[in-house]
Amino acid sequence: MSSEVKGPRKDSVRNRARLIDSARAVFAERGFGATLDDVARHAGVGVGTAYRHFPNKQALAAVVLADATEQIAADARDCLAIEDPWDALVTFFERNSARQAEDRGLYERLTGLGDPERQDQIWPGIVADVTTLFTRAQEAGAVRADAAPQDIAAIFALLGPAYEMTRDVSPDLWRRYLALILDGLRATDRPPLPAAPPPAEALDTILKAGKPQR
After folding, report:
1. What is the C-alpha to C-alpha distance for residues 58 and 41, in angstroms, rounded to an integer?
2. Which of 90, 182, 86 is nearest to 136 (CA)?
3. Alpha-carbon distance 73 to 70, whole Å?
4. Hey, which bits of the chain come out as E strands?
5. Rounded to whole angstroms, how far apart are CA atoms 94 and 75?
6. Distance of CA 63 to the CA centre of its chain
7. Is residue 214 within 8 Å of residue 184, measured between CB atoms?
8. At what angle do helices 10-30 and 57-79 cross, to 10 degrees?
9. How far apart are CA 24 and CA 105, in angstroms?
């Protein structure tokens, strides 16, 4: 008798991949209110198959979010190749805002709707990845001196209503409000900001306060 340990069956691997792909599509369109059953139907697999791979939608969403979080970090690294520090920072915001405007589920997960334990781990890591991009623009005099890297998370949270208007009114409306917000971030002849930036450990609290309401 062979003692060889067999790997996962091909159909099992295929079904898992289909569920993950379907989760991206379903959460993007319907947000985190979609269920694991909804994802299973979209994937064309039985509900039992879905639950054999993922115990709940939070577990499936965590896989999808891990990919999205890595993409944010990759965007930050790519934007460092842009010569002008301000243009690099703006490009980073534009790329990620466009992704969140199109993907309702991604926005909801990044702003704290869903698994709170996973949320505690998300933004500190993202801010760490984009700090180099932010600091470079600040040291070049393009970003106001009293801004801080952790302001990035709050800026994305503030864009939430603009994403909703984008879906209902105009596909590019979020760009208007991103430009207005970034204008406040840019170094100009302006008075100091009236309050200090939030401490890094308070990011989760800030994002939960601005998360979409059900």
Report:
1. 17
2. 86
3. 5
4. none
5. 10
6. 13
7. no
8. 80
9. 8
Two structure tokens written together for 105: 């589920």
Which residue is listed with tokens 């869903």?
A: 114
How far is Cα 53 from Cα 55, in angstroms, rounded to an integer? Answer: 7
Which has the closest alpha carbon to 193: 144, 133, 131?
144
Output the tens digit of pLDDT for each of the chain's 214 residues.
445 445 457 888 999 999 999 998 998 888 888 899 999 999 999 999 999 999 998 888 888 887 787 888 889 889 999 999 999 999 999 999 998 888 887 877 776 655 555 555 666 767 777 899 999 999 999 999 999 988 888 888 888 888 888 777 777 889 999 999 999 999 887 788 788 877 766 656 655 555 555 4
Tokens of 12: 């099992």
> Which long-range contacts link 207-210 to residues 24+ away (Cβ below 8 Å)?
207/110, 207/111, 207/112, 207/119, 207/123, 207/153, 207/154, 207/157, 208/111, 208/112, 208/119, 210/111, 210/154, 210/157, 210/158, 210/160
Q: Are 110 and 123 in contact (CB under 8 A)?
A: yes
Length of the chain: 214
